[in-house]
Amino acid sequence: xxxxxxxxxxxxxxxxxxxxxxxxxxxxxxxxxxxxxxxxxxxxxxxxxxxxxxxxxxxxxxxxxxxxxxxxxxxxxxxxxxxxxxxxxxxxxxxxxxxxxxxxxxxxxxxxxxxxxxxxxxxxxxx
Length: 127
What we know:
Blueprint: H1 2-23, E1 42-55, E2 58-69, E3 75-81, H2 86-100, E4 105-108, H3 117-126
Parallel strand pairs: 1-4
Antiparallel strand pairs: 1-2, 2-3
Protein backbone atom coordinates (compact mmCIF):
# COMPACT_ATOMS: atom_id res chain seq x y z
CA UNK A 1 0.00 0.00 0.00
CA UNK A 2 2.80 2.45 0.88
CA UNK A 3 4.47 1.77 -2.43
CA UNK A 4 1.39 2.59 -4.52
CA UNK A 5 0.80 5.80 -2.56
CA UNK A 6 4.39 6.89 -3.27
CA UNK A 7 4.02 6.28 -6.99
CA UNK A 8 0.76 8.21 -7.04
CA UNK A 9 2.38 11.19 -5.30
CA UNK A 10 5.32 11.22 -7.71
CA UNK A 11 3.03 11.13 -10.72
CA UNK A 12 0.79 13.84 -9.28
CA UNK A 13 3.72 16.15 -8.51
CA UNK A 14 5.41 15.61 -11.87
CA UNK A 15 2.28 16.03 -14.00
CA UNK A 16 2.20 19.89 -14.06
CA UNK A 17 5.91 20.10 -14.84
CA UNK A 18 5.64 17.64 -17.72
CA UNK A 19 2.54 19.39 -19.04
CA UNK A 20 4.28 22.79 -19.05
CA UNK A 21 7.31 21.30 -20.79
CA UNK A 22 5.15 19.69 -23.51
CA UNK A 23 3.27 22.95 -24.09
CA UNK A 24 6.52 24.84 -24.58
CA UNK A 25 6.09 27.03 -21.52
CA UNK A 26 9.70 26.39 -20.50
CA UNK A 27 11.63 27.82 -23.44
CA UNK A 28 14.45 29.71 -21.74
CA UNK A 29 17.31 27.85 -20.09
CA UNK A 30 17.14 27.74 -16.34
CA UNK A 31 19.76 30.04 -14.80
CA UNK A 32 21.30 29.27 -11.49
CA UNK A 33 22.68 31.90 -9.16
CA UNK A 34 26.30 30.78 -9.39
CA UNK A 35 26.50 30.04 -13.09
CA UNK A 36 27.97 32.28 -15.76
CA UNK A 37 27.84 32.42 -19.55
CA UNK A 38 31.57 31.99 -20.21
CA UNK A 39 34.55 30.22 -18.74
CA UNK A 40 36.61 32.30 -16.28
CA UNK A 41 33.79 34.82 -15.71
CA UNK A 42 33.56 33.84 -12.02
CA UNK A 43 35.69 31.67 -9.78
CA UNK A 44 34.57 30.64 -6.30
CA UNK A 45 37.28 30.00 -3.72
CA UNK A 46 37.19 28.52 -0.27
CA UNK A 47 39.16 26.69 2.40
CA UNK A 48 37.91 23.35 3.71
CA UNK A 49 39.23 21.06 6.41
CA UNK A 50 41.07 18.06 5.00
CA UNK A 51 42.47 14.81 6.34
CA UNK A 52 45.03 14.56 9.11
CA UNK A 53 48.59 13.70 8.10
CA UNK A 54 51.61 12.63 10.10
CA UNK A 55 54.30 15.29 10.46
CA UNK A 56 57.25 14.25 12.62
CA UNK A 57 55.14 11.47 14.13
CA UNK A 58 52.32 13.84 15.10
CA UNK A 59 48.85 14.05 13.50
CA UNK A 60 48.37 17.49 11.95
CA UNK A 61 45.23 18.87 10.29
CA UNK A 62 45.35 19.89 6.64
CA UNK A 63 43.29 22.48 4.77
CA UNK A 64 42.14 22.31 1.17
CA UNK A 65 42.40 25.57 -0.73
CA UNK A 66 40.28 25.33 -3.90
CA UNK A 67 39.00 27.54 -6.71
CA UNK A 68 36.20 26.38 -9.04
CA UNK A 69 35.10 27.95 -12.32
CA UNK A 70 31.34 28.60 -12.17
CA UNK A 71 30.65 28.08 -15.88
CA UNK A 72 32.34 24.73 -16.41
CA UNK A 73 32.46 23.58 -12.75
CA UNK A 74 36.12 22.82 -13.44
CA UNK A 75 38.44 22.81 -10.44
CA UNK A 76 40.92 25.50 -11.43
CA UNK A 77 43.23 24.97 -8.45
CA UNK A 78 43.05 22.70 -5.43
CA UNK A 79 45.83 21.85 -3.04
CA UNK A 80 46.19 20.72 0.58
CA UNK A 81 48.19 22.87 2.97
CA UNK A 82 49.14 22.62 6.63
CA UNK A 83 48.04 26.20 7.35
CA UNK A 84 45.17 28.48 6.42
CA UNK A 85 46.51 32.01 5.97
CA UNK A 86 47.10 34.81 3.47
CA UNK A 87 50.32 33.28 2.11
CA UNK A 88 48.47 30.09 1.23
CA UNK A 89 45.64 32.02 -0.44
CA UNK A 90 48.12 34.02 -2.54
CA UNK A 91 50.02 30.86 -3.48
CA UNK A 92 46.79 29.20 -4.65
CA UNK A 93 45.71 32.25 -6.66
CA UNK A 94 49.11 32.64 -8.31
CA UNK A 95 49.13 28.97 -9.30
CA UNK A 96 45.62 29.25 -10.77
CA UNK A 97 46.41 32.46 -12.64
CA UNK A 98 49.68 31.01 -13.99
CA UNK A 99 47.84 28.09 -15.58
CA UNK A 100 44.48 29.62 -16.59
CA UNK A 101 44.98 33.39 -16.63
CA UNK A 102 43.04 35.87 -14.55
CA UNK A 103 39.31 35.52 -13.99
CA UNK A 104 36.86 38.42 -14.36
CA UNK A 105 35.32 37.99 -10.89
CA UNK A 106 36.43 36.19 -7.78
CA UNK A 107 33.99 35.22 -5.02
CA UNK A 108 35.34 34.37 -1.59
CA UNK A 109 33.37 33.77 1.58
CA UNK A 110 33.63 35.85 4.74
CA UNK A 111 36.51 33.94 6.36
CA UNK A 112 39.16 35.75 8.38
CA UNK A 113 41.92 35.05 5.86
CA UNK A 114 40.04 37.01 3.16
CA UNK A 115 39.96 40.14 5.35
CA UNK A 116 43.73 40.66 5.42
CA UNK A 117 44.83 44.25 4.76
CA UNK A 118 47.41 43.05 2.25
CA UNK A 119 44.59 41.56 0.16
CA UNK A 120 42.23 44.54 0.49
CA UNK A 121 44.63 47.08 -1.06
CA UNK A 122 45.09 45.46 -4.50
CA UNK A 123 41.44 44.40 -4.75
CA UNK A 124 40.11 47.85 -3.84
CA UNK A 125 42.25 49.41 -6.57
CA UNK A 126 40.83 47.09 -9.25
CA UNK A 127 37.13 47.86 -8.68
